[in-house]
Design goal:
309 residues; seven-stranded mixed β-sheet; five-stranded mixed β-sheet; 12 strands
Length: 309
């Protein structure tokens, strides 16, 4: 990917967004004291390009990197961005645990993905790039103030347990990580679907910010989150209808139905099919168990009512 002359999207000359790199969308905020980066490019060559691009825009230090979740493709470029100098690396405490547990496995997965798209040099560089764990974690909310603009980090655990949003009220902008993935299949492996849908409804209604920056895909207005909202609404409806039924659910047609929502590169097709299948199995089991519990409570209540009469 030729990036030499490419400029990132600029919002009010303070917030910069790049959505054309491999894997995920990254951002950077130019505060009065220096840069704050939101997620990092996983490809080392892209991480080096991003660092140089920010220096060209404003020759300020990178003060902090924020991980919006523990995704392997968001956390691997930090050492290159910071040139291995000390700085804040911020995440939710549950994301810290996942990065620490799965960091090296995640590195190999990204290396394999880079090789699949013909980026062997990047894969080799990534193999030598150290993983940087968060050195500042929080539970619910954190305000980051390096001068204007102020960033508000909030725990929003629908898409994954360690997911956070980064709001910048002064500019009416929110980075939402994998709460919104456009032109890419959402990862449902740790999702709380009902909480996730409620968060998407808040975004869609414009109650969070006027400009929404997804974890994958371009900046959108609130209504632009509709594709992932529709995907999850349909999926929840299917799961609730099928969970706990007497017949065994045939997952093949369901997987194909949801595969059709977003484009999938041919080299990634098998992985995405497998991920959707595993997610459907988990959710069907979860909702079937919920139905059993509800039926058990109803039976106990009915038995108690008979005793009273």
């Amino acid at each position: 990917m030729g990036l030499e002359e490419k400029l990132p999207l600029s919002l009010d000359a303070r917030i910069f967004v790049e959505d054309q790199l491999y894997f995920s969308t990254v951002g950077a905020v130019r505060t009065e004291r220096g840069w704050v980066c939101i997620d990092t490019p996983a490809d080392p060559l892209h991480a080096a390009w991003w660092r140089q691009t920010l220096k060209t825009i404003a020759p300020l230090p990178i003060l902090a990197v924020i991980y919006t979740d523990a995704g392997r493709d968001r956390v691997l470029g930090t050492a290159i961005l910071m040139e291995e100098r000390p700085g804040l690396v911020i995440a939710h405490h549950q994301a810290f645990d996942r990065i620490k547990s799965h960091g090296e496995i995640g590195r190999q997965q990204v290396m394999d993905a880079l090789i699949n798209v013909g980026q062997s040099e990047s894969a080799e560089l990534l193999n030598r790039t150290p993983l940087v764990l968060p050195n500042l974690t929080f539970s619910d909310r954190l305000i980051l103030n390096f001068g204007s603009p102020v960033l508000i980090l909030e725990h929003v655990d629908g898409a994954s347990p360690g997911q956070i949003w980064v709001r910048i009220p002064e500019h009416d902008v929110v980075f939402v990580g994998d709460t919104v993935t456009l032109n890419a299949h959402p990862n449902l492996s740790e999702a709380d679907l009902e909480r996730w849908l409620e968060q998407l409804r808040q975004l869609h209604a414009g109650r969070v910010a006027r400009r929404v920056i997804p974890g994958r895909g371009p900046l959108v207005e609130p209504k632009g989150v509709s594709p992932v909202l529709d995907y999850l609404k349909t999926l929840l409806k299917r799961v609730k209808t099928l969970a706990g039924g007497r017949r065994k659910v045939e997952l093949g047609p369901l997987v194909n139905e949801f595969m059709a929502y977003f484009p999938v590169p041919e080299h990634d097709r098998e992985r995405i099919q497998r991920r959707i299948r595993l997610s459907l199995e988990r959710l069907l089991e979860l909702y079937a168990e919920g139905k059993k519990m509800e039926a058990g409570k109803a039976a106990m209540a009915k038995a108690g009512s008979r005793k009273k009469t």
